[in-house]
């Protein structure tokens, strides 16, 4: 079975793509993500959009490096650029956090960072119909309501799951036709993980009794999505949630007035509108409700880096991210520089003026810098008072205001590596270059590039 018609339909109806867009694929080098990458490589050749893959080495088993090497080989065979990073999940596990949860958290953080740095419109993951069945059954076992039983969404913001309609067997068949040999992740056989126990033991047992079990679970998920949509419509009319910087907000009085049975659904709606992957835990929700009744300025953490904050008549949900510490590095040109705070590398090299320099790019720029080989430039994050005259602008602007106008998320503003020359900001990656450093129509230029480590 070809994946191309499914991908073509998805990226036409559910997640439209333009020729100038970039899609980033979460690539483990396993069978499912290999099928997705190969299918999207075919679609990109037809549609003309850009494609990139990202692989995270979790360092959780001795073979993780071998899988990273295999990811390089497969991506090269498909002619898809690949970003690889190694992050030791075990060292980043939170207190009481399972290895599976920590791995998922670290992986999605890496993928989102890579998506932002690359300027990708979508992050595509290879979840399929059988993954959906497992997800719904797990949530059923853990007592989820309609929101949980609705399963994974085909699209949530920039995250897309274009293969949710297809079974695992269809993906395996598609990979077999390519002749590519994917690699298996041994963690998928570890019965210590609840999902693996369900896949390897419980599901086969249940299917022996009911061969149509998977169809019934998918139907349950569809019914739950319908119920959730009806509840969401009603709650949206009562709460009128709105977007705010870094999240979403509702009126405190409207939230506090809801009857108890609707309280979990209201918070789940707020979390989805803010972009949170999961609803809040029950203990945090109970603490928030108590504070709404007694405190003038309620505020409490609600897990996975999110926090509720009350201010006057408003309750906002925002993502908490540890602030990026100030950093500043000196780069002797031409050369490259590691930025460990951002898991990025910046390179400054000499080149000729080219057409791409006049089209704009999030990851590289052509600059007319007043430097010669052997001179030094500075790479740092923003400071109070930074100003820049943006490309095409007649006057300098405060960098803070420019980042707000360009809708750079607040948590990302301190993570942008600014290229500075002689105390002046020359390039704000993904945003603009300074007017005084724009290249002319021809001749030599300095080429600044950023890539993930």
The helix content is: 25-40%
Strand-residue proportion: 15-25%
Overall shape: it is: globular
CA-based gyration radius: 24 Å
Structural class: alpha+beta
* Mean pLDDT score: 89
From the N-terminal CA to the C-terminal CA, the straight-line distance is 36 Å
* Biggest β-sheet description: 6 strands, mixed
- List low-pLDDT spans: none
Total number of strands: 22
How many separate helices?
15
Cross-sheet strand order for the largest sheet: 3-2-1-4-6-5
Short description:
The chain is of the alpha+beta class and 453 residues long.
List the helices and strands and how they pair.
Elements (H helix, E strand, L loop, with lengths): L3 H11 L7 E5 L4 H17 L2 E8 L6 H14 L4 E5 L2 H4 L6 H20 L3 E3 L4 H13 L4 H4 L5 E2 L2 E2 L7 H11 L15 H16 L3 H27 L2 E3 L2 E5 H5 L6 H12 L7 H13 L4 E3 L4 E6 L2 E6 L8 E5 L2 E5 L4 E9 L11 E4 L8 E5 L6 E2 L8 E2 H7 L4 H4 L4 E4 L2 E5 L3 E2 L10 E9 L1
Parallel strand pairs: 1-2, 1-4, 2-3, 4-6
Antiparallel strand pairs: 5-6, 7-8, 8-11, 9-10, 10-11, 12-16, 13-14, 14-22, 15-22, 16-19, 17-18, 19-20, 20-21
Helix pairs in contact: 2-8, 6-9, 6-10
Name some characteristics of this structure:
15 helices; five-stranded antiparallel sheet; six-stranded mixed sheet; 39% helix; 453 residues; 22% strand; alpha+beta
Describe the protein's architecture and organization.
By secondary structure, the protein is an alpha+beta fold. The chain has 15 helices and 22 strands. The protein has helices at residues 4-14, 31-47, 64-77, 89-92, 99-118, 129-141, 146-149, 168-178, 194-209, 213-239, 252-256, 263-274, 282-294, 399-405, 410-413; strands at 22-26, 50-57, 82-86, 122-124, 155-156, 159-160, 242-244, 247-251, 299-301, 306-311, 314-319, 328-332, 335-339, 344-352, 364-367, 376-380, 387-388, 397-398, 418-421, 424-428, 432-433, 444-452. β13 and β14 form a beta hairpin. The relative contact order is 0.09. The mean pLDDT is 89.
